[in-house]
Automatic annotation (TrEMBL):
Task performed by this protein: Catalyzes 2 different reactions between oxygen and the acireductone 1,2-dihydroxy-3-keto-5-methylthiopentene (DHK-MTPene) depending upon the metal bound in the active site. Fe-containing acireductone dioxygenase (Fe-ARD) produces formate and 2-keto-4-methylthiobutyrate (KMTB), the alpha-ketoacid precursor of methionine in the methionine recycle pathway. Ni-containing acireductone dioxygenase (Ni-ARD) produces methylthiopropionate, carbon monoxide and formate, and does not lie on the methionine recycle pathway.
Name of the molecule in the record: Acireductone dioxygenase
Species in which this protein is naturally found: Ditylum brightwellii
Protein residues bound to Ni(2+): 150, 152, 156, 195
One record GO biological process: L-methionine salvage from methylthioadenosine
Molecular function (Gene Ontology), one example: acireductone dioxygenase [iron(II)-requiring] activity
Amino acid sequence: MTDSAETDTNPPEPKKLKVTEEKEEEKEKVTEEEKVETAKMEQTPDNEWPDAWIMPDGECENQKAENRKDPNEPVDAAAMRKIGINYWKMDADAYAYPALAVPWDPKDAVDPALKQLRDERGYSYADIITIHPEKLPGYDEKVKSFFEEHIHDAEEIRYILSGSGFFDVRNEADQWVRIHVKKGDLMTLPEGIYHRFTVDEKDIIHAMRLFIGQPIWTPFNRPQEDHPSRKKYVTEFVEEKKE
Ligand code: KMT
């Protein structure tokens, strides 16, 4: 028997085997860690999405009131997702934010969940707004203009730090869906969706507004059927989702 044959048939030394096993374990551990790092931040389970309902047809007398139908017609998370809404419940109690900061660099985010969303979705700008008669110059005109039906040529991202308000979005049947946002709600509206915003009767909301790149706040008031962002929205969420 040659030396090499002897080596081939000999069982591997226990020490070496242990080293190999440890390496394998290490490899598995790294892969698991990598998986955690690359896992996308899951949206919040359906039963924790904000309360939403169909509004009655026609103008509303008081935009800050709930404006529900009688009987109420609730809108669930699946229906909101279908028209392009994304939603994450955040921990707004654990971190403090100023009442007003323009701009606020999302690189300064200390909340790991906010950091993850920022990195995954490319948010590179943020500011903080407080809508309240004593905190927002030109409050009355601003509240009126937020409530004009409009679209944007970019995603709208709002993280509610405190207070509450209503985002109204048009569904595929062109009805108003009223979404009651509150502290901890981080919601995105897709580019091109018809929408509007109002504070509720508590008259105060404190929110972070995030943006990919330089912010463009320009609202394009309805009708905007020929606007490229509207066309994109209709193709993606109205025509494709028709059953
Ligand atoms: C805006 O563009 O400033 C708004 O959407 C106002 C509402 S922020 C909760």
